[in-house]
Protein: Proline--tRNA ligase
Organism: Corynebacterium flavescens
Amino acid sequence: MITRLSQLFLRTLREDPADAEVPSHKLLVRAGYVRRAAPGVYTWLPLGLRTLRKIEEIVREEMNAIGGQEMLFPALLPREPYETSNRWTEYGNNLFRLKDRRGTDMLLGPTHEEMFASAVKDMYSSYKDFPVTLYQIQTKYRDEERPRAGVLRGREFIMKDSYSFDMTDAGLDEAYARHRRAYQNIFNRLEIDYAICKATSGAMGGSASEEFLAVSEVGEDTFVRATNSDYAANVEAVITPAPAEVPIEGQPAAVEYQTPDAPTIDSLVDWAHAENIEVAGRAVTGADTLKCMVVKIRDARPDAEWELAGVLLPGDRALDEKRLEAALEPAEFELASEEDFAKNRFLAKGYVGPRSLNANGVTVYADPRVVKGSSWITGADAPNRHVVGLVAGRDFEVDHYIEAAEVKEGDRAPDGEGTLTLERGIELGHIFQLGRKYTEAFDVQILDENGKRATPTMGSYGIGITRMLAVLAEQRHDDKGLRWPVEIAPYQVHVAVANKDAAALEAGAKLVEELDAAGLEVLFDDRAKVSPGVKFKDAELLGMPFVAILGRAFADGIIELRIRGGETLEVPASEIVSRLLELVRG
Ligand code: ATP
Ligand code: MG
């Protein structure tokens, strides 16, 4: 097919839009792929829509290949199913709620577990109907607190969401593995640089869960990768390898000291150096000190009260609130307030140690490094006093181990394979084993082989289609413009006539006919009154992978073939069609 730039609904911009911060956003707007309609809401212009449809098609092919059946739910949904799952409330301000003319509550769907679970309940009743995988490519609505970077985080966006239903846990494992492979195929075909990260299951509950993160500096998610293996995980999901327990016998008794000038970890370490205090025969470091953070925790029951708790961390590490939040989920936590300290007189602010927590029935959570037999310098529960040689399992007890300490670059990898690096990424897809949460909530009852009622188990798998387009623009661009992979570029070949000669224009018109006849998709810059310089700039901005230019050299029968982001070839006019065919077909 041939599209003529002289007729295409397109206006490229030389200036970056004022509200754009990240390169993909700037370029997609400047190149006329998308246009802002409202904050976080975008219009797809002809070029953008072509690429979007191609991405959709790749996802569709891979979903069909694993036996997914495509269907389509509405975006406008009734309240009841979301009431059943409690997400009408849980979703909070992220949910677009509205009323119809009769005053009936409705919503714009943020994700569709409820609808799929109830459809399966209504239509299926026997184990013979299972397993089944259903999917849709559909517009979602979320009133994001911070819509960002154009279509990267929109309030309206397109997602492929699929759902597997199985009668057995083994079946769910298989459905999960199939999706994992399908996602790998999709991201490999699109040439995306990504990592598969172990994830916490978050608010959805459930067990196995992984996120596909595109590696990108502008990403909002931090993840870790091991230097010597393909281990990768969300920071929230990193498991700290616990050191070996230490024998308690023979360790010196704890000793208390007056420490008037040691309110911080650094000053405490300085004090220990000045006093020649050693740990295991070496100088003290921050990692030998123990911080006792006082927090309060409230579990998920509606009538639950806040309860005081302690979180013990090696002194050289900050509390990572997101990790603690993920570890406690669905319970929530807050740091203890001045009021809490005032009310609980045994808490010596700045000098809290684990002993007073144990003695006053406060639950003690600890970092996995606080193993039995480990010895610490920590607060002695009185102003300006510290204790040295306080041994876990002898002088204080840990009630629960928890992942709450910050993860640092260079930490030992959980699989023992080297160390961790910290990187930033953009979540492109999420697969997880949901289990029976929704099928139970919707009371999906299926007769099993023995005629007994059973509840199927569910997996839920999402990929952001519109976000994927932004990620491709983000990972593949240069200072001049976009640079699409052939498979999803709006057009495979961009032909520009940069020569006022009537013969060149005529030859260009003939060339695009030939390319079209050969089955290629061609964008033809046939604009008569536009200078060669502008045409070249636009070609770079729009980002088609191959640009054929009929310019000055055309008088000598030469067409310039620019590979976007690569070399420029001089090709005799007689060979250009076959060269392009070779390049496009790869
Ligand atoms: P995020 O943490 O980025 O908000 P999420 O955990 O809310 O993502 P899911 O609910 O798992 O995302 O949705 C599945 C996929 O939909 C995501 O992996 C992402 O690709 C896409 N997605 C989610 N929210 C948005 C959004 N606001 N704009 C564009 N795509 C989105
Ligand atoms: Mg989200």
